Amino acid sequence: MPENASRAVLVTGCSSGIGHATAHHLAARGWTVYATARRPETLTDLEAAGCTTLGLDVTDEASMRSAVERVEADHGAVGVLVNNAGYSQSGTIEEVDIDAVRRQFETNVFGLARMCQLVLPKMRERRSGKIVNVSSMGANFVFPGGGYYHATKSAVTALSHALRFEVKGFGVDVVIIEPGLIKTRFGDTATSALDDEKGEAGGPYADFNAKLAAATKSAYEAGPLSKLGGPPEAVAKAIETAVTASRPKPRYLVTPSAHALVNQRRLMTDRMWDAMMRTQFPQPK
Ligand code: NAP
User: Fold this and answer.
1) CATH number of the domain encompassing residue 129
2) Per the confidence metrics, is the pTM higher than 0.85?
3) What is the torsion angle, in degrees rounded to the nearest 10, for the CA atoms of residue 285, residue 280, residue 148 and residue 174?
4) 236 lines ligand 1 (CB under 6 A)
5) Residues 259, 253 contacting (CB under 8 angstroms)
6) Where is the Ketoreductase domain (predicted)?
7) Inter-residue contact 264 to 180 (CB < 8 Å)
8) Residue 199: pLDDT above 60?
9) Is the CB of 184 under 6 A from ligand 1?
10) Is residue 15 part of a domain?
């Protein structure tokens, strides 16, 4: 780390899962961690673990601005921004309410982009900083019923590639983290979004939605696919590797099964992929 680097780490979405594990992991290794969540009352254990806790909703300009200003007032600049907050708005492209689609992009993409904009001026001034964007292995392929979520993660990966080039000369590194299946509250949120959006009973996608909900539940709970899942600490460790490296890799795929799936997708044509999806999901008709 350069001598003038700030060791202050700002993490979004720390109420559970990957954000919580990352804040905990980095604080335990001596980093100055600002753990944030839209409901700061969910962060008491992280406060006890040495984190400073703040309210931050990535869809709310005032709360994003005030969290960044607080870290800058204490340390001059955010040293590391971990853009982690996000969720999956599952459902079919036709049926998901367009306002829910807007919320999905507002949280996963525009909030993340705005956080980058807010921390960059002081990082550039210091000529030092790291931005870690939590994308997904799902930026490399698409599961049916997850189109909107995958679109947000593809957007996160795309804008991270652009940003990496744009800010490298100012001493700022940009890293993409692409977790595979990680056992967190993510599956619950995705299936409850599906419940909200499942459309009329007996509608054209009813069987598909039912199978999608069951597959998601089984992958994140006790089904056979869940054995491929990793713990949130695996992602926290990858983030630590990225933030401590003097020359971090542009992207880190996390979990062995994520490597296998992404490689498999690269070797398949689109038609081969669709055929594989038909073995997993009933094709709506
Ligand atoms: P999680 O346990 O559900 O955590 C999601 C976090 O995001 C929660 O703290 C949630 O806060 C927060 N969040 C949601 N909307 C927010 C907003 N508007 N402002 C601030 N925070 C907000 O799920 P997770 O698995 O840890 O997910 C973390 C990240 O990893 C997400 O970006 C997700 O897409 C990505 N990811 C997860 C997996 C996986 O399999 N788990 C795989 C690939 C990528 P609340 O408590 O307030 O809802």
Assistant:
1) 3.40.50.720
2) yes
3) -160
4) no
5) yes
6) 7-185
7) no
8) no
9) yes
10) yes
